[in-house]
Amino acid sequence: MSLKNKLCVYTLLSSCLWAGVAGASALETKARNVVLMDYDTGRYLYTKDSEKMVPPASMSKLMTVYMIFSKLKDGSLSLDDTFTVSENAWRKGGAASGGSTMFLPIGEKVRVEDILKGIIIQSGNDACITAAENLAGSEENFASEMQETAKRIGLNNSSFVNATGLPHPDHRMSAEDLAKLARHIISEFPEYYYLFSEKTFKYHNIIQGNRNPLLYSMPDADGLKTGHTDEAGFCLTASAKRGDRRLISVMTGMKSNKERSEEAEKVMSWGFREFDNYQVLNKGQKIAEIPVWFGTEKTTDLIVADNVLETIQKSKASKVKMTAVYDKPVKAPIAQGQKLGVVKIEIQGEETQEVDLVAGTSVNKLNFFGKIMANLKYLLLGEQ
Which CATH architecture fits 33-254? Predict the structure, then answer.
């Protein structure tokens, strides 16, 4: 008896899961480079020149923070450890330099926790250089470590030459990489992420406010970092969480602090309003029961391998099409979890995605006598 597989294609009833809504409005923004990302799915809701490597200004301090957080997490550093302020850090990052500063005096021993607040809240260049020198011996060495770490975590359009984001022709990041970096920070270091939502920090009796405009205009906003230079314009990497949903946005090239505030809030609000997350498939969900040839069981369940959460524009939620594609029957032996097919998920205007369908249970193959009986049954009755 020969085994002939039949390709089965079944369209799942996905269109009945969600009611359709009115069409989404188009987004226009004055920002030069933009990424709007859903945190949970990593889906980009909007992009504009997002892969272009541009001056990141102080937003690249997020990479400096990531490096410090990593050392805190692996135990090689603690919040109570101290860094010593060098003359170089004071000259390059202090008040005389004209940039953002924590006002650290030469020779001061500063707690790591205060250094972090000085970087995140006050955007202190002196705090960044102090951290770099104490952790790597020099800012140049630290920048090399930043580059290595960036490659390791998938930031492929970034080039670091300093810890501050101060202007340099070779210091560049893409908006996409900044969004990815923000996602890493939020997911890997939840115990320290609260620092980004603190609005003020007082050091040496000098109080400075957090420059992130969304912390004051959007109750849901809780991070991350502003930036500004003449070349970069007014920039912002931001995140906000509304209910169970979190969005991350990166915007560069705005002309004023006011424009940055208005455009950032507009883009973030648009993302929450026009999109939502939908659990389209659940791990272990049974899709079909398929026959097994020469198996100790006649069938096995075809189940979904993983949970599938999709970020979908609300106007397209009623038009999602899911198609299960698999061969039947399958021949024993079959191992539990063995891939037997896929579900194709089609969302209007998006690339088709595939999710594996696997065997819900193992099925052993029949012994020699069992195969003979199965063949006889097939010849006499036309079934296995």
Answer: 3-Layer(aba) Sandwich (3.40)
